[in-house]
Amino acid sequence: MKYRISDLLENMEICCLYEKDEYDSSAISTERIKEKTMEKINNSTKKSRPGPRRVFLIAAAVAVISTITAAAVVASRVSVRKLEAGELLQNDCSSFMSDGGESVITVAPQSEGNVICFRPEWLPEDAQCMEWSCTFSAHMPYYAEKTGKSPEEVMKTSGMTQEEGQKWYTSVWNNPEGTEMNSGEKGAGRFFRIDMFDGTTLDEMYLLIDREMTVVREGELNGMTACYMAEKPAAEHNGAIDASGSQNYILLYSEKLNCMVEISGTLDFEEMEKIANGLELRKTGLKALKGSGGYSFIRGGLG
Amino acid sequence: MDEERALRMLQKGDQAGLHWLIERFTPYVAAIIGRIAGAYAYPSDVEELVSDVFVALWQDAGRVKPIKLRQWLASVARHKVLDYLRRKKIELPLEEDTLPWEFDLDTRVQQEELYGAVRRAVMDMDNPDREIFLRHYYYLQPLKDIAVQISMKESTVKSRLRRGRQVLKRKLIEGGFADEIPDQ
Lengths: 303, 184
Known about the structure:
The structure holds 2 protein chains of 2 kinds. By secondary structure, chain A is of the alpha+beta class. Helix content of chain A is 25%, strand content 28%. The longest helix of chain A has 17 residues, at 30-46. Chain B contains 8 helices and 1 strand; from the N terminus they run H-H-H-H-E-H-H-H-H. Strand 1 of chain A pairs antiparallel with strand 1 (101-102) of chain B.
């Protein structure tokens, strides 16, 4: 595969770059930017049905998981309920004001969990990987800083070498430096994501989704309970047709490792199953950061 | 209002959130686009590109993580302006960028590892080498412009850039991504 040097820097994060302001932006009018932006949004909206749709069913899907897997363990931790209009979900990091009718899943507090890493054996070559994950090694400086330990000590406790750590990935929802950004653009083609939720990330986690979903089937993949979900066709977001097309989801719950993996994107289920079956999970010796437990992950409703 | 709250408003379809983000980030996005497009775009073209970035933000709000908002804007802005230059058939010649480096990568995972190794190698460079490297290969700035901006001779900029390339090549070879990467 051939790469130009400039292509190799494509995924560089701007936070890494110098930010001297050399471009004179005084000729750029913010008001005109607003006008142009709204004009383009309105033009794209005319082609779609009016008004945003907000249906949140992922919670129900996760509840399905809880009933078919180790029910005694999971069901006792999971509750699902409908929000009322004006109801506020809030924690230290975020808040969400309900329009009414959204479902919310609350996972009962788990005091402990370990950092779980994943490594895919197969990924589709012709689809864009949109991830908020980073290598285990890249996450270590942040983890060390948060725990007040040296990176060397942390790596030792994890049970991984630095070299191994570069080959395993983990999702770190509240690490601003370690996470890869979601650099994809809509309409760029097929895309997918793999997200990992460890024990403390599941702690009091709210899962909502801003799209209309149907549970397609449940089963088992790679030793984990699997729930297949699909968006209804012609999904919309903010009133505009989603050019990237409807998404499929497979949620995988591992009772053994106390974690959940979410595979999502515009791939078909057969491809997602192939990813799931080739997915290798590894429990590290590190306790999951408490901070991630306080983070409400509300897909589509709130970051 | 803060960035997280504004994004939440966007995700709920509230235009006030978008207007606030446009107010706050237009200079930032315009600066990235302006640095790359430079003399090749009129201010009206830059405005079009900046508005395209915010349209993408509106449509993709559900996928943007608040703490990564600036990075997301930068990445989309760079894609937009490079696409604009391609459509205008404007080529910005870069040092040793005409013949691509070749890596034997079989999987997407290996490709991601390569990007990670490049990122680490660049971040390990000392300044001003890193700044020169990024100015040239990320912002596509000509050597003579970089020389003016950082008050350095063009020949010095060129040699520091060469040193950056050598460091990158060495680290990628050490990382096992290629047995050798020949000079062009």
